[in-house]
Amino acid sequence: MNAPLPSSGVPAAPFSVLELAPVVPVVVVEDAADAVPLARALAAGGLPAIEVTLRTPAAPDAIRAIAAEVPGAVVGAGTVLTPEQVTNAVAAGARFLVSPGCTDALLTAARAAGVPFLPGVSTASEVMALLEHGVREMKFFPARAAGGTAYLKSLAGPLPQARFCPTGGIGPETAPEYLALPNVGCVGGSWMLPEDAVAARDWDRVERLAREAAAL
User: Fold this and answer.
1) d(CA 206, CA 5)
2) Which residues are designated catalytic?
């Protein structure tokens, strides 16, 4: 069950990214000018947690704009790979961090930053290593390539304390299968942001697709 957001749209700290919505949009922003209307469409559709990946030069400005101008959104930074990116993302306004994997240096920096962090895992050993550090919420990536729902079911038996946000190769057809698992809190995906809709700045379509995703 996902917890409702306060009227401000911003959850009180500390909060769990896995409880904000069933789907976390994974957003690649090419033009920072698109960030605010895109985030407003996603939030209006019921997807407040928005992961802006640090894959483009526009990403920091996009995070900064969303944090400042879209009170209904909880913006985070994805594809966080280095301690420097942790510092810069949080300074820009990121409320949570997501990484495809994890290193000791990255975990130390993320904890020092004081925001929720979803480190990426794809093996039982990686999950166990993070559990030893007290981390219980993780990104399962790349979900489909790493074994999908069958692998997550296998992890639930020996490692029931771990909870996941599977990301990678998930669409509206397969998302419900992941969300039905007891160790999955939400999924990450970008299907509500089709390239043609973003290129045309068809934010009504994005909001409609977001609303369908939020209902999963």
Assistant:
1) 21
2) 51, 139
CB-based burial, 3-33: b 16+ in 10 Å, e otherwise: eebeeeebbeeebbbbbbbbbbbbbbbeebe
Q: Is 76:94 a contact under the CB 8 Å cutoff?
A: yes
d(CA 100, CA 203): 28
β-partners of residue 49 are 74
pLDDT of amino acid 20: 96
| Average confidence (pLDDT) over 10-19 | 78
The residues pairing with 53 across neighbouring beta strands, listed in sequence order, are: 78
On the CB side of 136, how many CA atoms lie within 13 Å of its CA?
A: 7
What residue spans of the chain are helical by DSSP H? 35-44, 59-69, 83-92, 104-113, 124-132, 148-156, 175-179, 195-199, 203-214
Q: What is the pLDDT of residue 12?
A: 58
Helix H or strand E segment including 98? strand 97-98
Residue of 2, 3, 180, 20 whose CA lies nearest to 116:
20
Please tell me whether the overall predicted TM-score, pTM, comes out greater than 0.85 for this model.
yes
Distance CA(45)–CA(34), nearest Å, equals 17
How far apart CA 166 and CA 121 sit, in angstroms, is 10
Instruction: Report how far apart, in Å, the C-alpha atoms of 114 and of each of 84, 88, 174, 176 are.
Output: 15, 13, 33, 31
DSSP state of 181: S
